[in-house]
Amino acid sequence: MTAPLRGSDATVVDVALGDRSYDIVIGRGQLASLGARIAKLRPGAKVAIVSDENVAARHLDAAVAAAKSGAAQVSTIVLPPGEGTKSFAHLARLCDDLISQRIERSDLVVALGGGVIGDLAGFAAAIVRRGVDYVQVPTSLLAQVDSSVGGKTAIDSPQGKNLIGAFYQPVLVVADTALLDTLPEREFRAGYAEVAKYGLLGDAAFFAWLEANWQDVFAGGPAREHAIATSCRAKAAIVARDERETGDRMLLNLGHTFGHALEADADYSDRLLHGEAIAIGMALAFEFSARRGLLPKAEAERAIRHLAAVGLPTKVSEVRGDVSGIDRLMTLIAQDKKVSRGKLTFILARAIGQAFIETNVDSQDVRVFLEEKLPGSVVRR
Ligand SMILES: NC(=O)c1ccc[n+]([C@@H]2O[C@H](COP(=O)([O-])OP(=O)(O)OC[C@H]3O[C@@H](n4cnc5c(N)ncnc54)[C@H](O)[C@@H]3O)[C@@H](O)[C@H]2O)c1
Ligand SMILES: [Zn+2]
């Protein structure tokens, strides 16, 4: 199936947060509607579009043209690509640029990029002039289904990822699914892990739909829009219930405790992309749940089979390069999630679509389980 080139009607998902509610507009070609939407939201506003070099080379002209049709003035700021851009140095430069471009509190910052640009520009918007409104125009699959929604903004610290930031909701998200046509396939596949996550954690019917239709999601037809809209609806519902992650929002961390440890162990390099780490992490979470007798082994195998079918890694042995031993991984796991008296919090599952928060996982159980999964380990009986 080839991607249709025509635009599509937008699907609109509401993020219901009272007076901070906003729309996620999803559809092929929706970038063109940016100007009209800006004009409606903030008539007469100046707009600063923040992007990275990779995205700017492909989509900045179209974004500027679209914004110009509705904004009083449009300026641009282009940063280097990559996680390294989520740093104090780039944040400082970005804030200076926004201020020198005379972006005032009545104006708008537009984040045009993947999760790196969304997190950084969102945080800059949160602090420049004590808060300027911002719009997310996510350009990676991960950003369209996850990072652009929910208002988590951050930069990294030498001690860890996303340690400096703010909850700061955008006023609009425009997810143009056609922008994903230029995304490298490996990045698309990694973002798909988060799509599958929504099925695995809370929507068995969506997971079954993905099993049948994932090829069309990759190809870029209406199935892609359906998958993105369903993912956004799932995230929006959870964020509306628990904006600041004191409860239910933790479900979104399915696969992330194991995944973050592997990601950190690979130094956040392209040896292991975030979504790839999460695919392995979700496979481990389902296997671990089966091991604890929470769900039939066949159910865990079904979850893993789908991730593997789309080409995602599901085993620690598939990480490129060396993986550290159990001690280091356990240290990383303990750092990622709060440990109290040797107990860890994990997102486990009773079935596909039925994840839950387990706060009482013995770290020794995790160690024994994970040790068996490490490459070269001998399964103990
Ligand atoms: N705020 C949140 O809730 C949240 C949630 C998940 C992840 N994140 C953050 O998101 C970041 C990862 O996001 P990501 O995977 O989008 O990474 P990214 O922003 O680095 O984008 C991945 C790569 O794809 C390129 N790219 C993006 N869109 C493109 C397009 N349309 N065409 C061609 N190239 C394109 C980028 O330049 C980059 O090289 C991490 O920093 C993570 O911490 C935040
Ligand atoms: Zn994630």
Structural topology:
Elements: E1 11-15, E2 22-26, H1 34-41, E3 46-52, H2 53-68, E4 73-79, H3 88-100, E5 108-113, H4 115-127, E6 133-138, H5 141-147, E7 152-157, E8 160-167, E9 172-175, H6 185-202, H7 204-219, H8 222-241, H9 256-265, H10 274-291, H11 297-309, H12 326-336, E10 339-340, E11 343-351, E12 354-362, H13 363-373
Parallel strand pairs: 2-9, 3-4, 3-5, 5-6, 6-9
Antiparallel strand pairs: 1-2, 7-8, 10-11, 11-12
Helix pairs in contact: 1-2, 3-4, 5-6, 5-8, 6-7, 6-8, 6-10, 7-8, 9-10, 9-12, 10-11
Please sum up the structure shown.
It contains 13 helices and twelve strands. The chain has helices at residues 34-41, 53-68, 88-100, 115-127, 141-147, 185-202, 204-219, 222-241, 256-265, 274-291, 297-309, 326-336, 363-373, and strands at residues 11-15, 22-26, 46-52, 73-79, 108-113, 133-138, 152-157, 160-167, 172-175, 339-340, 343-351, 354-362.
Structure commentary:
- It contains 13 helices and twelve strands.
- A hairpin with a 2-residue loop joins strand 10 and strand 11.
- It starts with 10 loop residues before the first strand and ends in an 8-residue tail after the last helix.
- It is 46% helix and 19% strand.
- A seven-stranded mixed beta sheet has the order 1-2-9-6-5-3-4. Strands 10-11-12 form a three-stranded antiparallel beta sheet.
- It has 381 residues and is α/β, with parallel strands linked by helices.
- Mean pLDDT is 94; it is low at 1-5.
- It is globular and about 60 Å long.
- Residues 52, 54-55, 58, 81-83, 86, 113-117, 119, 139-140, 142-143, 146-147, 150, 152, 161-162, 179-180, 182-183, 187, 274 line the site of nicotinamide-adenine-dinucleotide (NAD).
- Nicotinamide-adenine-dinucleotide (NAD) binds at residues 52, 54-55, 58, 81-83, 86, 113-117, 119, 139-140, 142-143, 146-147, 150, 152, 161-162, 179-180, 182-183, 187, 274.
